Automatic annotation (TrEMBL):
GO terms for molecular function: calmodulin binding. This is Phosphorylase b kinase regulatory subunit. One of its GO terms (biological process) is glycogen metabolic process. It is found in: Cell membrane. Keywords: Calmodulin-binding, Carbohydrate metabolism, Cell membrane, Glycogen metabolism, Lipoprotein, Membrane, Phosphoprotein, Prenylation. The keyword Phosphoprotein applies. Residues 981-1175 form the Phosphorylase b kinase regulatory subunit alpha/beta C-terminal domain. Transmembrane segments: none annotated. Pathway: Glycan biosynthesis; glycogen metabolism. Phosphorylase b kinase catalyzes the phosphorylation of serine in certain substrates, including troponin I. The alpha chain may bind calmodulin. It comes from the Eukaryota. Residues 8-967 form the GH15-like domain.
């Protein structure tokens, strides 16, 4: 026998260790590893980690296999890996029904089990008896399965198994929105069994999805049927959410050492080198100890203070675990691998030495990795005083196979038996390297020759759909339908992909199917979806955003290809809109918004684009893999004919008729307006106490134009004609409700004059007295109600004014319902000629066909879309119950980036959304929040979609914001419009609801970014929002500007700077913006006092016992208390007061702040001090609050009304003071703190730390 080389001898040593420590425990029947000698349960995660050492050793043998016995050893080790991976696969396939159910429900009860019996692979605990939903475990399995397959192991044997694995991909693809129990099986760290979104699970899922994409599970011997397909957009969503969370692990765990497996081996899920560095540093600085790393802060597991008799912790007892958490040597093994992959030999050596010191030697001298180290019971006191000083003892299993396996891998790398590339055959470790710039290819196709010729006039040469043949162009919904066939398997009862969503990454590829090639237009261009799709400017804006997104997100082979079809429906009065021409010219120039683009034709790009094979559409299960599945064949045949053929839109019946006399125009006007609920004028922003819906609604106080003395039609800030006037659709109030509706929203303190008073010049312009308005209003009501339905429908036939049709239909919906049949009505007193004429013009009598009010509304909606009457569009969309297709997705996009969303007007109708909801529930919630106000509930859905667009493309806009309060944002938008246009609240809401979707998004952007803007009027009474230096922000909000006379008169006469701090506080308050590190600093204040009271909510000191300073749950507690304050500017002053308190604690001026601190007292005290100073210096406030009071004014003040209209009894001028300076708010707040808190010394020298 030849003598073995040194390396061979050393490998034999490792082979003995692996055999004795790991393989000896492998069950011969199932191939699984039991948890220990006494516990036969096999966890998926631990099993996969255990086998990694065996896999690594087999690859090391493969390299030196010069003798037969080495090749035999290599094969034996490889087959142990295959045995284990197949054992887990069989256990999971036994639960195939769960995989199928989970795709629909995503409920923890339907999840795959986290552990199985190692004896027979069957379940060992019930669905509800364990935190089974652990997406990271299934993801880890798929990731290692992909890596092992790529290294040459054959683990999957049949096409049925391939289908099952494809369904496991669907199981993890929405990991970014599924709260689970995570790597430590705990969920929330109090261990009460509440799952939460975990960054470690999302990262592992992202890695698995990328590793599985286009992987052939049969290795080199497979064909198209054994390839796994992943939609790139799903992996990218996981990445985006992961990046927004790191270095946080979840809501309750601000940091977790488990993230080491996401930023390094085995997942390599983060491709931003800086973020990897920050996360690793955070873990080392806060969790690393002498004996390893803590899992997370305040982890009570196996500490001497833990009560072993119960599973969960009391919330208050978490504080006891601080500084005595167990330390796990396992994480040193991860760090060795992390640095080995970074090729940082010094750090590898450092951690190897540290690990060696804490390993346990067995009797035969083998080094074992223990599970964890705990502080000894008798040393707990000293450890509390001086963390890290006491010796610890081993608790838990020894050897801990998960750690032992990683330790052996590390040793094989250190001794050069393995190269890092062998442990990562898919090259995931290279993800963080810089990539070359992406060039986005754009193809524009004309629907027909006519449009092609129109484009040619502008020197833009494109092909038509017919000319690009044989390439076929289809809308995204066709691709989404084809993907539902992926992973279907009758034998296993698996139904394929459930999600209907195909993102821009998926439609930017070409697809081949047998000998055909398909190009798909992006999902956002699918016109049948929602009304915002009929706003050309918005579509162009979205296109630019998507091109920009492709630049950063594209990581597939080839270049992305965006295909757009220009159709008739895009034309504006038979011309191609200017905005489109300009954009195409920009695309032609080669750059758009900083992204490189190429405009060309499809055939030019065939060789440079990514092409995916849709081979899974074959009838493999029936034994004809080359023949298309019969359903697919029929679907394609039907669709290919229809998809881009011209569909004419339906005309509103009667729309072509000339109006007869105006005799019967009665009082249908305003039916829509009555449904409004945006309250701009009331000082405390629609927050009039616990009033029912009726009082929240601001109805039209200005009488309908046809009742006005001077007969001017449709009063508006811009004198528009009735046809074009801004129409705001309103919600259907039941009849009885209308009469009782309260025209004067009164606030709880009775603090302001009635709304009517504040309608200032608007009403005065028409010299109408108040009583007159009331009489006319009710007369309008009764006229409307008594009108016969017959007559109304006759009117509907006559009028061409869409606004009027809207009002009539609104009334019909209220009285008769959506399904009321109008066929044949309204022809009573007319001659037969007329009747036939009406029918001919598309009237309501159609060969006995039923024409319901709903059908009429649909026609009106389509017309309004064409004519761009956005207010009417929003209203009819709401009445028809249309919903934004991507609503659930948009809300999820916000929630998964740790932003909660509230809808409804604060404070009484605000609903908070904290977890992703299905589409239907979400719509119902929004509908309930706004009562009957359809327009505002539509606008809410629209704004949520825009917010989601912004958070994807410009996440920095949302820094330091935890909750997005859509109702408040709407009020700020209206308030800002009212200020800029110098009109009253009702006109402002009207203008707001008539903004085009593009301008609405623009306005929202200006408000989020705090940029100034102006409003310019464009043709047809539409407004356009332009960035500028002037003081105006577009935001629909109820933030209290006070009364038009007082405040606006001031604003008009004084220069621009007046009011800017008030406005800034108002915006920050409405957006819930807080200073950096605000919440963790409030935590330090709370630690030193018994509680903080804000608007009746007390934040107890006990919160610091349960939560750590950086914990998201704590931030949400503080946020909830602040959200009790209805007035945004007042909220901001409370935030400033809290900041002053944090300065007091941070500079350790006093050991304790005493009892419960009432934060509002500080603000009011500061206001008092401010007014005293104003009197001394005769400042602006002497005109209002600092006046020497006489009887009349005292009476007013007692009734809760400030002259200057300041919110919450605080002078408007204090709101408008800068924070710094001798008359700044911080100065007054600091003085207030010194006066109000007993603990601050009253005299003597103190260093002033507030600069």
């Amino acid at each position: 026998m030849r003598s073995r080389s040194n390396s061979g001898v050393r490998l034999d040593y490792y082979q003995r260790i692996v055999h004795r420590l790991i393989l000896a425990h492998q069950e011969p029947v199932t191939g699984l590893f039991p948890a220990s000698n006494v516990n036969s349960h096999a966890w998926i995660r631990d099993n996969v980690y255990c086998i990694l050492a065996v896999w690594g050793l087999s690859m090391a043998y493969k390299k030196i296999a010069d003798q037969d016995e080495d090749r035999a050893k290599c094969y034996e080790l490889e087959q142990s890996c295959v045995k284990l991976m197949r054992g887990l696969l069989m256990a999971m396939m036994n639960q195939k029904d769960k995989v199928e159910k989970f795709k629909m429900t995503q409920s923890p009860c339907d999840s795959l089990h986290a552990k199985y019996s190692s004896k027979n692979g069957l379940p060992v605990v019930g669905d509800n008896e364990w935190g089974h939903l652990q997406i990271d475990a299934v993801s880890l399995y798929l990731l290692i399965l992909a890596q092992m397959t790529a290294s040459g192991l054959q683990i999957v044997f049949t096409l049925d198994e391939v289908s099952f694995i494809q369904n496991l991909v669907f199981y993890i693809e929405s990991a970014y929105s599924i709260p689970d129990y995570g790597i430590w099986e705990r969920g929330d760290k109090t261990n009460h069994g509440e799952p939460e979104l975990n960054a470690s699970s999302i990262g592992m899922a992202k890695a698995a999805l990328e590793a599985m994409n286009e992987l052939d599970l049969f290795g080199a011997r497979g064909g198209p049927a054994s390839v796994i397909h992943v939609l790139a957009d799903e992996a990218h969503k996981c990445q985006a959410v992961l990046q927004s969370m790191l270095p946080r692990e979840s809501n309750s765990k601000e940091l977790d050492s488990g993230l080491l497996c996401v930023i390094g081996f085995p997942a390599f899920a983060v491709d931003d080198a800086q973020l990897i560095h920050n996360t690793k540093d955070a873990i080392l600085s806060r969790l690393q100890g002498k004996y390893g790393c803590k899992r997370f802060l305040r982890d009570g597991y196996r500490t001497p203070k833990e009560d072993p008799s119960r599973l969960y912790y009391e919330r208050w007892e978490l504080r006891m675990f601080e500084n005595i958490e167990c330390e796990w040597p396992l994480f040193f093994c991860y760090l060795i691998l992390f640095h080995a992959f970074q090729n940082d030999k010094r750090s590898v050596q450092e951690y190897a030495d540290r690990l060696e010191k804490i390993m346990v030697r067995s009797e035969d001298g083998t080094l074992l990795v223990p599970e964890s180290y705990a502080v000894r019971q008798d040393l707990v006191g000293q450890e509390y005083q001086k963390p890290g000083s006491q010796i610890r003892e081993v608790v838990g299993r020894c050897p801990f196979l998960w750690g032992q396996s990683l330790f052996i891998l590390g040793r094989l790398l250190q001794e050069g038996f393995l190269a890092v590339g062998e442990l990562d055959p898919l090259n995931r470790r290279l993800g963080a390297q810089k990539k070359p710039d992406v060039v986005v290819q754009v193809v524009i196709i004309a629907e027909d020759n006519e449009i092609r010729d129109k484009l040619a006039e502008h020197d833009l040469h494109v092909q038509t759909i017919a000319e690009v043949a044989p390439i076929e162009v289809q809308p995204a919904r066709v691709l989404s339908h084809l993907y539902t066939y992926l992973g279907r398997n009758r034998k296993l009862g698996l139904s394929g992909r459930k999600s209907r969503d195909v993102g821009i990454l998926s439609t930017s590829k070409l697809y081949s199917l047998k000998d055909r090639i398909f190009a798909f237009t992006p999902q956002f261009a699918d016109l049948s979806r929602f009304y915002i799709a009929s706003d050309n400017e918005l579509m162009i804006d979205i296109l630019k955003g998507e091109i920009n997104f492709l630049k950063s997100a594209w990581d597939l082979l080839g270049r992305p290809l965006v295909t757009l079809v220009l159709k008739r429906i895009h034309l504006d009065q038979d011309k191609i809109p200017l905005a489109m021409i300009q954009t195409m010219r920009k695309l032609k120039s080669g750059y758009i918004n900083g992204t490189r683009v190429m405009l060309g034709s499809l055939k030019d790009f065939l060789n440079t684009s990514a092409i995916t094979d849709l081979s899974f559409l074959g009838s493999t299960e029936d034994g004809y893999p080359d023949r298309l599945h019969s359903d697919v064949q029929t679907y394609l045949d039907e669709h290919l004919l229809r998809s881009f053929s011209n569909r004419s839109t339906m005309n509103l019946r009667g729309g072509q008729l000339r109006p007869r006399t105006l005799r019967r125009r009665m009082s249908c006007k305003g039916a829509i307006k009555k449904t409004r609920s945006i309250n701009v004028d009331s000082d405390n922003l629609g927050m009039e106490g616990p009033a029912p819906l009726t009082e929240r609604r601001l109805s039209s106080v200005v009488p309908p134009p046809w009742l006005q003395p001077n007969k001017q039609s449709h009063v508006s800030v811009f004198a528009t004609t009735p046809e074009e006037g801004p129409s705001t659709p309103s919600l259907h109030l039941g009849n009885e409700l209308v009469i009782r509706e309260n025209i004067y929203p009164v606030d709880p303190h009775g603090s302001n004059r009635t709304t009517i008073d504040r309608r200032s010049e608007f009403v005065r312009q028409h010299e109408i007295t108040v009583p007159k308005i009331l009489i006319q209003r009710h007369r309008a009501e009764t006229n409307f109600a008594d009108t016969e339905v017959e007559e109304l429908i006759a009117m509907l036939r006559e009028t061409e004014n869409l606004e009027e049709q809207g009002d009539i239909l609104q009334f019909l919906v209220d009285t008769q319902g959506l399904d009321f049949n109008t066929a044949g009505l309204g022809f009573k007193n007319k001659s037969d000629d007329n009747a036939s004429a009406a029918a001919g013009a598309g009237g309501m009598l159609e060969e006995g066909r039923v024409v319901t009010v709903r059908d009429l509304l649909k026609g009106l909606y389509e017309k309004a879309c064409q004519q761009k009457l956005w207010g009417l569009v929003r209203h009819t969309a709401g009445m028809l119950g249309k919903r934004v297709e991507d609503l659930a997705k948009a809300v999820t996009d916000l929630l998964v980036r740790q932003k909660q969303v509230t809808v409804g007007m604060p404070p009484n109708n605000e609903h908070t959304i904290t977890a992703p909801l299905p589409e239907g529930e979400l719509r119902q919630l929004i509908h309930d929040a706004y009562g009957d106000d359809e327009s505002t509930s539509m606008l809410t859905q629209e704004l949520m979609v825009y917010l989601a667009m912004f958070i994807r493309t410009e996440p920095q806009l949302f820094h330091e914001m935890l909750r997005l309060r859509v109702g408040l944002i709407i009020q700020v938008m209206a308030k800002e419009l009212s200020r800029t246009l110098n009109c009253d609240g009702e006109a402002a809401s009207e203008h707001l609801l008539n903004l085009s979707p593009f301008e609405m998004k623009n306005l929202l952007y200006h408000i989020l970014s705090g940029k100034e803007f102006a409003v310019s009027s464009v043709a047809r009474g539409n407004l356009s929002i332009v960035s500028c230096k002037s003081s105006r922000v577009s935001k629909k909000s109820q933030i209290g500007l006070g009364d038009p006379e007082g405040e606006d008169a001031l604003l008009a006469t004084i220069d621009d700077r007046q009011g800017q701090w008030l406005r800034r506080r108002r915006l920050d308050g409405a957006l819930n913006r807080v200073p950096r590190d605000f919440y963790s600093r409030v935590w330090t204040v709370l630690e030193k006092c018994q509680g903080l009271a804000i608007e009746g909510r007390v934040l107890q000191q006990s919160l610091t016992q349960e939560m750590t300073p950086g914990e998201l749950k704590f931030a949400l507690e503080v946020e909830t208390a602040l959200n009790q304050i209805p007035q945004p500017e007042y909220r901001q002053l409370v935030v400033e007061a809290l900041m002053v308190l944090t300065l007091v604690t941070e500079h350790n001026m006093v050991p304790s702040l005493g009892g419960i601190i009432y934060v509002e007292h500080l603000v009011h005290k500061a206001n008092q001090l401010f007014l005293e100073d104003q009197r001394k210096v005769q400042g602006d406030a002497t005109l209002c609050c600092a006046k020497i009071k006489d009887g009349k004014e005292q009476q007013q003040a007692a009734s809760g009304m400030l002259l200057c209209g300041g919110a919450a009894y605080i002078c408007q001028h204090l709101y408008d003071s800068a924070p710094s300076g001798s008359y700044g708010t911080m100065t007054y707040l600091s003085r207030a703190v010194a006066l109000v808190l007993d603990c601050v010394p009253k005299h003597g020298e103190m260093e002033c730390a507030i600069s």
